[in-house]
Write a structure and sequence with these properties.
- The protein is mainly β.
- The chain is built from 2 helices and 10 strands; from the N terminus they run ββββαββββββα.
- The strands form 2 sheets. It has a 6-stranded antiparallel beta barrel with strand order 5-6-7-10-9-8. It has a 4-stranded antiparallel beta sheet with strand order 1-4-3-2.
- It is globular.
Length: 161
């Protein structure tokens, strides 16, 4: 009866509901927001009826399986900036699983440019697999990504409840 949309928790901070846009001009019905404690991760529950009007051909789908992500692998950061423009940048994985105190979790660290507003967007491997969720970037162009393994385990927990 519903689909789950994943985003960074700081994008929907303080909200119980949020409007979901698959692309900037294409609003879907409001979604219920569930923030994961201790992670920069939120799940948005969207009604299947809201999505039923859309066809799969209208939107690209990221593969659910994770490619082998190692240091030196190419990553593509994808998301929308505050002006509604789709941005895509490529970079290299510097660390594939390192504890980052600011996020209190293990993260992927990439040498990759990002644009303000891309938090919650996808980090994708060359093979089209989901590497993780963009959580932030510092002023030196280092991108912090919540790994897909963490997303999958948290998804399994919320779908069981």
């Amino acid at each position: 009866e519903e689909r789950i949309v994943v985003t960074a928790a700081h994008v929907v901070e303080g909200l119980k509901e949020a409007d979901v846009y698959l692309v900037p001009e294409d609003k879907i019905l409001p979604a219920t927001v569930e923030v994961v404690d201790g992670l920069d991760l939120a799940f948005l529950r969207v009604s299947v009826r809201a999505l039923a009007e859309k066809t799969k051909e209208e939107y690209s789908v990221v593969k659910r399986t994770q490619d082998n992500i190692e240091e030196g692998a190419t990553i593509y950061a994808m998301g929308y900036n505050p002006y509604g423009e789709l941005c895509e940048f490529s970079g290299i994985v510097l660390e594939d699983w390192i504890y980052v105190e600011d996020f209190d979790n293990y993260m992927l660290i990439c040498d990759c440019q990002a644009s303000p507003g891309m938090s919650g967007g996808a980090a994708v491997t060359e093979g089209g697999g989901l590497a993780g969720l963009i959580c932030g970037e510092n002023d030196k162009g280092i991108l912090v990504i919540l790994p897909v393994a963490v997303l999958q385990s948290e998804y399994e927990l919320i779908t069981k409840n």
